Amino acid sequence: MGDADALINGLAVAGGGFIAQFITYPLQTVNARQQVERNRNERRKFGALEQMYHIVEQEGWGRLYGGFAPSLVAIATSEGVHNYFYQKFRNKAEATALAGCVSVLMTNPISLVVTRMQTHTKKSQPNRTDLLSPEDVIPSAVEPPPFGVNLAIQEVYGERGVLGFWRGALPTLIMVIKPSIQFMLYEPLLKELKKRKRLSGKKRNRNVTSLEIFLLETLANLGATVVTYPLLVIKSRLQAKQTVEHERHQYKGTTDAIDKMIRHEGWYGFYKGLSTKIVQSVLAAALPFMLKEKLVKGADWVVLQAATLFLKFFFALIYT
């Protein structure tokens, strides 16, 4: 593959990732809100799509994409750190673990802001004037300013200072093991598939197709997601705004969150929103896979059109 082809494929993968993030982000928002529901009996009677409808009806379309821009920054930073350490070290396991830890520490503040923006609702709007300077306070009859990045940062800093931006880092650091779990699940599945193909006796079907590899990777990823999902819930609980109505809804740290969730919600609390997360994960994996070929063709067309325009402009300069 030449440099041009590599660039086009890279842009296609990035484009597919962006499209997948944009399409599935409303599910991420719903999932974040499901994760921070803190009552034992607070089980939704409607699914993710109905929850999205209620968010749009009560808070507007924009709330489905709260934190979308900083989430893109977090993804880009995480991918950049991962690729840097992957190239820096020869040992893949060492590189993956180190890249994961450094990435968590670097992107946790952004992740926290995203969680605040995703879980912010109109119920908390009256408190937003606390984040404004006295000269900026507006009459109660006027709609408060949108809860954006600046207000989220002010809110976090006002609660716990600079260290508050690393709330939830511990469970996220533990989640670095997720790729290892995924690999442990993927390898046996791949070996079993190859074995079945050899035993089938059909020479044409002995090679594993890209679709089959994708399906195995997706299945392994889902398994790893189920195993590590409680850590994701704990992280969201720690990063979301702490409610003041009940002491049992306030978490001092990871162990305190685990203890209170077990005592007041039971083990179900650690898996709130799992079905939404599974749907979002499948879509996020499938969309880039399905779109890559079309995006590559589209990138080829853009490059061809750009080259054609450049040549026309170049020859026009020569002959004028």
UniProtKB/TrEMBL annotation:
SUPFAM superfamilies xrefs: Mitochondrial carrier (SSF103506)
Solcar repeats: 4-92, 94-192, 212-298
Coiled-coil portions: none
InterPro entries: MCP_dom_sf, MCP_transmembrane, SLC25A32-like
Cellular localization per UniProt: Membrane
Protein origin, superkingdom: Eukaryota
Alphabetical keyword list: Membrane, Repeat, Transmembrane, Transmembrane helix, Transport
Keyword Protein transport attached: no
Major site of localization recorded for this protein: membrane
Pfam family of the protein (one): Mito_carr
Lipid bilayer topology: Multi-pass membrane protein
GO CC field: membrane
TM stretches of this protein: 6-25, 95-114, 169-190, 211-232, 270-289, 301-319
Family membership noted in the UniProt record: Belongs to the mitochondrial carrier (TC 2.A.29) family.
Protein's name in the database: Peroxisomal nicotinamide adenine dinucleotide carrier-like isoform X3
